[in-house]
Write a structure and sequence with these properties.
Structural class: mainly alpha
Number of helices: 15
Helix content: over 70%
CATH architecture: Up-down Bundle
Largest sheet: 3 strands, mixed
Strand order of the largest sheet: 1-2-4
CATH superfamily: MFS general substrate transporter like domains
Oligomer: single chain
Distance between the termini: 17 Å
Order of helices and strands: EEEHHHHHHHHHEEHHHHHH
Length: 470
């Protein structure tokens, strides 16, 4: 059942003040969806989106530190590459659990505490890794960090989606997700400076301090989602004040409804992901996330190790992952613009094809003989793969209504994390057994399967619509 009271027959119409950017709503009934989508994109809304994006920057930063540290740890501790597969897997298992539970937590208790808690958890755990005496301790702490890293992603994208007007929503959500490879790119540049001077311990300590500082900033400045507040009658006074800060004046005794979503909210909770014709889309999205995150985390966790196993230096291997992430930033933004104009189906399918072809085209390149071309190819591959991964969150925001949006996004990401966990072992095994060719074949095959899965999704974002459907 919806948390909203029955809407009156005639909804309140917005009244624009010609002398300012403030939008006033007459009468007691206020449609929160209409109030957010119409009128200005207020400064407070932009601040909320930026804070969510910063949460994802440090999320991407911390999630990829292990990939840069593994080659150094292998050399310093004299252990094999396969010994680190459980470390990588532990972090990814934590991410999967964090993704699954954070969405449910956010839908029940609020987006704000979910984001703040996630950032503080992975910041503290990453800091603690700097004191780890052995591989087992690193694995345990990576699991704890993974809980926070996994939880930050779905809740931060939900914050962005629910603060942003419909006309900007797809681009805003994608710009938030693109902060994962942006954070990874910054981690690569940071690692290149910190590892030679302070070692892997200094890398993890600094990587943990950053999110702890951000957590304090979020606690002071991040507001709760207005769409979440609208669903809690006891929080309506807070919502009235929040809307006023956003330039949308409503009566103090306003009654809030959401006419665009009430019809889609007959069922709530996990089962709602399979009702109202969403079953096939849900399964297809889960499959796409599974294989896409397998490809993404095979790169995040093992790309530097693969390159060093082929004879490149640690610094050059780090440049390879940085190029991958830089391509991802560019690709995700370009794909978001294409989706806003052409819809999501063809841009996503073309990027999937590009991800498979770009991986297979690198098969003929010798790592040491054609290092520059290989790094360029990795950047191109990262462009296509992260374009798909980043914009799939906007697809989730379109497919699922507010009542289960965080749950739907988190469940898809949880399946993606299972694929990522598989990559922890597959990457080590494939690199050891087949080297660079086997690794590249695996990346291309994963993206070919993502193409099939996304082709099966029926509710793609239509052309000219930069938001979710309702």
């Amino acid at each position: 059942m919806s948390h909203f009271p029955p809407a009156p027959a005639a909804g309140a119409a917005p009244l624009e003040d010609a002398g300012s950017h403030t939008v006033a709503y007459g009468g007691k009934a206020v449609d929160i969806g209409h109030a957010l989508d119409e009128g200005p994109y207020a400064l407070l809304q932009r601040i909320a989106a930026v804070l969510a994006a910063l949460s994802i920057v440090v999320d991407g930063f911390d999630s990829q530190l292990i990939g840069f540290a593994i080659p150094v740890l292998i050399k310093e501790w004299g252990i094999t590459r396969n010994a680190f597969a459980p470390v990588v897997a532990a972090g990814l298992i934590g991410m999967g659990l964090g993704s699954a539970f954070a969405g449910v937590f956010a839908d029940r208790f609020g987006r704000r505490p979910a984001v703040i808690g996630s950032v503080l958890v992975f910041g503290a755990a990453t800091c603690a890794i700097s004191l780890a005496p052995n591989v087992g301790t690193i694995a345990a702490l990576r699991f704890l960090a993974g809980l926070g890293i996994g939880g930050a992603l779905p809740t931060s994208t939900t914050i962005t989606a629910e603060f942003t007007p419909a006309r900007f929503r797809t681009f805003a959500v994608t710009a938030t997700i693109v902060c994962v490879p942006l954070g990874g790119m910054l981690a690569g540049l940071f690692a290149g400076q910190v590892l030679p001077a302070y070692g892997w311990r200094g890398l993890f300590f600094a990587g943990g301090v950053l999110p702890l500082l951000l957590g304090i900033v979020l606690f002071v400045t991040l507001p709760e989602s207005p769409r979440f507040l609208a669903r809690r009658e006891g929080r309506w006074p807070d919502l009235v004040r929040l809307l006023a800060r956003m330039g949308r004046s409503v009566p103090a005794d306003a009654v809030f409804t959401d006419l665009r979503e009430q019809s889609a909210e007959k069922h709530q909770g996990f089962a709602a992901l399979f009702r109202d014709g969403r079953g096939r889309d849900t399964v297809a999205i889960w499959g796409a996330f599974f294989m896409c995150l397998l490809a993404v985390y095979a790169a995040f966790s093992w790309l530097p190790a693969m390159l060093t196993s082929e004879g490149l230096s640690v610094s050059l291997a780090g440049y390879g992952l940085s190029a991958y992430n830089l391509g991802g930033v560019i690709g995700a933004l370009l794909c978001a613009l294409a989706i806003a104009r052409y819809g999501s189906r063809w841009p996503l399918l073309l990027c999937c094809a590009g991800g498979a072809i770009s991986a297979w085209m690198m098969l003929g390149l010798g790592v040491k003989q054609h290092t520059g071309l290989l790094i360029l190819g990795l950047g191109l591959h990262g462009l296509f793969v992260n374009a798909v991964q980043s914009t799939m969150y906007a697809l989730c925001a379109y497919v699922y209504p507010t009542s289960v949006r965080a749950t739907g996004t988190a469940s898809a990401l949880a399946f993606g994390r299972i694929g990522a966990i598989l990559s922890a072992f597959a990457g080590a095994i494939v690199i050891t057994a087949a080297g660079a060719p086997g690794y590249l074949l695996m990346l291309g095959a994963a993206m070919a399967i993502v193409l099939v899965a996304l082709a099966l999704v029926g509710r793609h974002i239509p052309a000219g619509m930069s938001s979710y459907r309702r």
